[in-house]
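Hello again, I could really use a second opinion on something today. I've been puzzling over a protein and I'd love to understand its fold better. I'm sending you its amino acid sequence along with the backbone structure tokens. It would help a lot if you went through both lines with me. I've dropped the whole record in just underneath, so have a look.
***
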Amino acid sequence: MVAISIIKDSNTKALPSALPSGLVAVFIGGTSGIGQATLKQFVVATKDKSPRVYIVGRSTQAAHPLLAELRQSNPSATLEFIRQDVSLVRNVDAAVSQIKKHETKVDLLYLSVGFVSFQGRIETSEGLEPSMTTRYYSRARAIQLLLPLLNHSENAHVVTVLGAGQEAPLLEDDLDLVKPGNFSIAKSSQHAATMLTLILEKWAVENPNISFVHQFPGLVSTPLLTRGSSGITGFLLRWIVSPFLNTFIAASPEDAGARSLFHATNARYTVPARETRAVPIPAELEKARQSGGGVFLVSDKSEYAANEKVLVDQRRLTGKVWEHTQQIYARVTQ
């Protein structure tokens, strides 16, 4: 386990001086929870260094006070909120198109958007289930579209907060879990995490100068459990389960955000070709291990999320997962 004190010390002392000026960051899912906490700490760490930050979210109401706070913490930052609901894949295309109008590079792509469905499989207008869309299809689409800009960075990181180490065997003939009886909260979560890791490994091999980090945050005190729930389930989650977990078990968003920022900037989680451009590894720590496919799979303790036994078998499906994903994109974005 990497102690949170080591991480916070590095983020506070080493990070601000090590980061270059003019960084471009894209946060998809930055208006609440872990994403918001990471965003706030990133903006503070780049004070007086003129970062340009794009925040993609669906709530203008949530964005306005956040933007005001961020501008106060770092007046040199250029901040742009892009209002798009990425439970629809085509909205990712619209958001990325807007970013590409202004930028030729992206240094950090941070993805933490998520949704948990307690109502079973209810499809969007694109014929996809929204929890799987936000956790896999939209995230992979954003990465795919931004790869050219990420490759123009001197030290690009892609950090996706989801389920590293939680990968499980896929249902090969029903990757999007559309067949009756296949969809469940657990299965959709496992499918999203597994497909995401496989595609990140594909991109890691093809783009060796980009650091891909797949992080499992563990239990964190965020509103995630109370979204997408209603009736008795919603009541129990909102007034009993969540308060208990948040009070006695869950980590704070601030601590989870500190870990995320560490994963996104420290040489410990940076590919060898770019390691000298990242924040130095604290003296107490060693270089983090990468998966067999070149991705930094990181646990909630900031250590390697070992799941190689599952991945060795599931890598045979990478081509099938990619073909399926491209077919989905062709259908929903035409």
